[in-house]
TrEMBL record:
Domain annotation Acetyl-CoA hydrolase/transferase N-terminal: ranges: 19-246
Name used for this protein in its record: Acetyl-CoA hydrolase
Reaction catalyzed: acetyl-CoA + H2O = acetate + CoA + H(+)
Species annotation: Hanseniaspora opuntiae
Domain Acetyl-CoA hydrolase/transferase C-terminal span(s) in chain numbering: 347-497
SUPFAM superfamilies reported in the protein's UniProt record: NagB/RpiA/CoA transferase-like (SSF100950)
InterPro entries (alphabetical): AcetylCoA_hyd_C, AcetylCoA_hyd_C_sf, ActCoA_hydro, ActCoA_hydro_N, NagB/RpiA_transferase-like
GO biological process, one term: acetate metabolic process
GO cellular component: mitochondrion
Documented EC number(s): 3.1.2.1
Similarity section: Belongs to the acetyl-CoA hydrolase/transferase family.
Length: 540
């Protein structure tokens, strides 16, 4: 027990539950087929000591090997939205039997797509409520919802969460993410807490609300981004805590790729669009609260805003990323609300250096709040997310490559797109394959999997241009998307498909399609390595 740990755990009862050896915790409390909850959101703030100990224990005892089913240790794992590289280590050891919701990592993705790990996708704000409603563990006897508003405390066998401190009054001070941690702690029979002493104690950042289940669920009364209505700390039944450990393992977030030319063009299109909306008084001069997904394009868009001249900006999003720091640095960002601070090592150093001023502008909330459609609609959020592909009528695929292969999961994109004041999707128009530098188009006749329907998409942007789809009928949308967003190499192909479909329907159909040809691009990709039709002998 280090001196830093002792200074962080200021409650005697919690300090008395300190365990030095994580293997002792694993041996005492973990069993095959348990329902386990891990803190964390998009690779930040997840437990590290216990997952690593689980992997070592499994490897040492040769568990989960073929033919050794009687000795398995595999779990139903629930995470707010991915907990970091430790989850990938567990996937490598084949320790995850079932998983939900959003996940990030090469190994967990491999296990899902090989069928070793069953995965079901869920909107992030809805997932914690369904968990506490007993939807995912149906053998339980729950409290009678007509007689009590008490939340069940047995939907998880174990919750393992990372925190940065425990106050004298027993209040748990979380770290750089909240996610579904409040619900995990409420719904777990046993609780394990890891205190991470490699990062600062993040007291004062959090605005924590634990909602009741229907029919006792109350409205979220936030009317402004910076309005705090919850608690800075989490309070739990200390009798459920079976171990408190020290963690000296940092989160591992790779450095962002530098903004490329295409991402910069997308950012420029969006900024010009915002300026035009302000000019016509559809937006205030400081815009509406911004939501941005993760990834290079999303970072570039936010980075572009730093030099756009917009001031007094507000952010209401899931993940706070490096590019937001530039907005703090030039004084254009007033407040940022998220459920996770997903900063690279360099980004975290910048935040630490400016902690006294910048931390006052950051609010961390549970994903039931950060992703809540009620608040997204009330605050008038500008939602910006990246799809896998969009079809000519505006339906979007965000999860399943070629309709079948899971990427990461829906995350919060659908919640934001459905309820935002401005629902925007952005991506590059074409991507390479081993045989064709433009082998995959992001604009297709008909998406292979639908996550967001055309009813929700307002604006689609690629490096080619911006398609404003508001108020347009399907056939108008098709021409707008093809002519302004599709790559020039694919534009004639898409226009011909659309024209042929209209002719085939004699101009009478609402969304004209040729069902014999609408997936032809995918067949080309599988058979020839490019969505463009060509013979293998031909040189592109």
């Amino acid at each position: 027990m280090s001196a830093v740990f002792k200074s962080r755990v200021r409650n005697k009862l919690f300090l008395s539950k300190f365990v030095e050896n994580p293997t002792d915790v694993v041996r005492a409390h973990f069993r095959d087929k348990q329902h386990i909850g891990f803190s964390g959101f998009t690779g930040i703030g997840g437990p590290k000591v216990i997952p690593n100990a689980l992997c070592e224990y499994t490897r040492y005892h040769h568990l989960n090997m073929p033919g050794e089913t009687e000795r398995q240790m595999r779990f139903n794992l629930y995470v707010g939205a991915s907990c970091g590289v430790e989850e990938d280590k567990m996937a490598l050891e084949n320790m995850i039997a079932k998983r939900t919701p959003h996940q990030v990592g090469k190994q967990i993705r491999k296990r899902i797509n090989s069928g070793d790990t069953l995965f079901f996708d869920k909107n992030l704000s809805l997932f914690p409520q369904e968990l506490l409603s007993g939807f995912y563990n149906k053998d339980l006897n729950l409290p009678d919802p007509t007689k009590s508003d008490a939340l069940p405390s047995n939907v998880l066998d174990i919750a393992v969460i990372e925190a940065t401190g425990i106050d004298e009054d027993g209040g748990i001070i979380l770290g750089p993410s909240v996610g579904a941690t409040p619900e995990f702690l409420a719904g777990a029979s046993k609780i394990i807490i890891e205190i991470n002493t490699t990062i600062r104690e993040m007291k004062g950042l959090h605005d924590l609300v634990l909602q009741k289940n229907p029919p006792y669920r109350q409205p979220l009364m936030h009317t402004k981004v910076d309005q705090r209505l919850g608690s800075e700390k989490l309070y739990i039944d200390a009798s459920k805590v079976v171990a408190v450990l020290e963690s000296k393992i940092e989160d591992h977030i790779p450095e962002n790729s530098p903004a490329d030319e295409n991402s910069a063009k997308i950012a420029a299109h969006l900024i010009n669009f915002f300026k035009d909306e302000v000019k016509h008084n559809r937006m205030p001069k400081n815009l509406f609260p911004l939501q941005s997904g993760i990834g290079n394009v999303a970072n570039s868009v936010i980075g572009g805003l730093a030099n756009s001249g917009f001031k007094n900006l507000q952010v209401f999003t899931e993940v706070f990323q490096d590019s937001f720091l530039d907005l703090f640095a030039n004084g254009s960002l007033d407040v940022a609300s998220s459920t996770s601070i997903r900063l690279t090592p360099n980004g975290m150093k910048r935040l630490d250096k400016n902690w006294d001023s910048w931390s006052k502008k950051i609010i961390l909330r549970p994903q039931t709040v950060s992703n809540n459609p009620e608040l997204i609609r009330r605050l008038g959020v500008i939602a910006m997310n990246t799809p896998v592909e969009v079809d000519i009528y505006g339906h979007a695929n965000s999860t399943c490559v070629l309709g079948s292969k899971m990427l990461n999961g829906i995350g919060g994109s659908r919640e934001f797109l459905t309820s935002a004041k401005y629902s925007i999707m952005h991506t590059i128009s074409a991507r390479p394959t081993p045989t064709d530098p433009l082998g995959i188009t992001s604009v297709v006749p008909f998406v292979s999997h639908v996550d967001q329907t055309e009813h929700d998409l307002d604006v689609f942007v690629t490096e080619q241009g911006l398609a404003d789809l508001r108020g347009l009928a399907p056939r108008e949308r098709a021409l707008e998307i093809i002519n302004k967003c599709a790559h020039p190499e694919y534009r004639p192909i898409l226009l011909k498909y659309f024209s042929d479909s209209v002719k085939r329907s004699n101009g009478r159909m609402h969304e004209p399609h040729d069902l014999h040809k609408c997936f032809e691009m995918y067949f080309n990709l599988e058979e020839r390595g490019s969505m463009r039709a060509f013979k293998p002998s031909e040189k592109l």
